[in-house]
Amino acid sequence: MSYIIGVDCGTSGTKTVLFDEKGSVIASKTIEYPMYQPKNGYAEQEPGDWANAMINTIKAVMAQSGVKKEDVKGIGISGQMHGLVMLDKDNNVLRRSIIWCDQRTAAEVEQMNKIVGRDKLVEITANPALTGWTAAKILWVKNNEPEIYSKVAHILLPKDFLRFVLTGEYATEVSDASGMQLLDVPNRCWSDELLTAFEIDKSWLGKVYESCEVTGTLTKCMAETLGLCEGTIVVGGAGDNAAAAVGTGVVEDGKAFTTIGTSGVVFAHTSNISIDKMGRVHTCCAAVPNTWHVMGVTQGAGLSLKWFRDNLCMAEKETAKLMGVDEYYLMDKQAEQVPVGANRLLYLPYLMGERTPHLDPDARGVFFGLSAIHTRRDMLRAVMEGVTYSLRDCVEVFREMNVNVSDMMACGGGGTSPLWRSMLADLYNCEVKTAASKEGPALGVAILASVGAGLYSSVSEACGEIVKTDKIQAPNADNVPEYEKYYQLYREIYPALKESFGKLANM
Question: What is the end-to-end Cα distance of the chain in Å, rounded?
């Protein structure tokens, strides 16, 4: 039996999973680390913390498993996207990594638009300039920390720093590099035009690979440290969402996944690049060679339900404790008793502004149609439906871009709710499935490594063998037209309130 290691470098911790060649989990270990916020809106981490977590989790899974090191055929790495790691000529880390959720770069986004122009940025990078993405962070260091910038010799993304630790190679791959805003996304290579315009030295950036290609092998020193063989391959890997797509089998046209976590993500695979010129959704290179993905984000998905729980569901919280069940399970049972449309009550889930499709930081949450007949139970149902309408908004943008979805996976905490899955199936009007494995990104990069190691001939073949479906929720033919009526009304509410949201923000 052959084995593969999947490493997932997240924001709260790094998780390493040892899989066999069929995708079964043999051993797993997570190590957490802190995030630093030196000022409001800042978010940083120590790359050394990621490296130590990776090294110690790999050592732990090898010790737990008893697997022979000769049987480990490859390593794949997934990671939080958009983080900035700067090294000097001696490979010393020059400063803490500015990570994906950092928002300090508003001036640099304006600078990027001024230098290159919004339309040109969208044409080359498939996305408008964004505060969280890497190019703006590089310019921030250049503008605010010139003494550090003058020492830069290498720029890496978080998971690519881990690759350097393992192999000594400066490399990246297309899915993660797409989130830097320096990659020519249609052509899957660095953009000389942008690098010249922003005065960023191309030699600082790693070589760009496809996600399942071999980017290097374990050094002798690192192999001895980890208890693995020198020369064990390390493949490109993928950014976290692209890795999750592989881990859930979203690797062919028509396939997509919905994640309901704090925010909500709808992610669809496409063989043909499609770019939304309005910037409502992100387009990036997929982890499958020569394909792309589109991704819509709704800010207040699971956050809306958590807000409702924490402020209005004290009884469910107390009862859940006494019963020894999850409070969300009881909330589901309450919402199930309310009909489709929540007795003519609609909810806009814009607690944190909105990205897809409105791109409006001033948008705010709304209950629409509230009357004296409504109960807490109706409001709860309305919250869940409103989040589902917002996710349907993402799918509607995809359809405008000729990216059609007929096969949907559900992930994240919300994906465990049978009621929420039924809402998704009815509003998407297609089956909504869950994957048997909950390992997502770690499994995805292990699959990529299994292809790089020659255990499978393609990502699609590997997913066909490894990714299994757990539950399948079919749409309810009676509910589909009923939801459609409410969804069309939901779409009318934001445009009617847009100007008022702006006024409220300025009060």
Answer: 65
- Tell me what pLDDT residue 192 has: 98
How many separate domains does the chain show?
2
- What is the domain range of residue 104? 3-236
Omega cis (within 30) before 47 = no
Q: What is the pLDDT of residues 427-448, one digit of tens each?
A: 999 999 999 998 999 999 999 9
- pLDDT of res. 262: 87
- The first and second tokens of residue 350, run together, are 């814009």
Residue 240 bears catalytic tag: yes
Distance CA 281, CA 499 (A): 23
Q: Are strands 44-45 and 97-98 parallel, antiparallel or unpaired?
A: antiparallel
**CA–CA dist 183, 142 (Å, integer):** 19
Q: In this structure, what CATH number is given to the domain that contains residue 90?
A: 3.30.420.40
The helix (run of H) or strand (run of E) holding residue 268 is strand 264-270
| H helices present in 238-358, as ranges | 240-247, 301-312, 314-323, 327-336
Torsion of CA 476, 478, 482, 483, to 10 degrees: 0
User: Pick the catalytic residue: 8, 49, 160, 240?
Assistant: 240
* 476 confidence band (pLDDT: 50, 70, 90): very high
* pTM of the predicted model as reported, rounded to 2 decimal places: 0.93
> Are residues 230 and 254 both part of a single domain?
no
User: Is there a domain that residue 481 lies in?
Assistant: no
Q: Does 87 reside within a domain?
A: yes
Among 394, 472, 404, CA closest to 434: 472
Please give the helix or strand (H or E) that residue 267 lies within, else none: strand 264-270
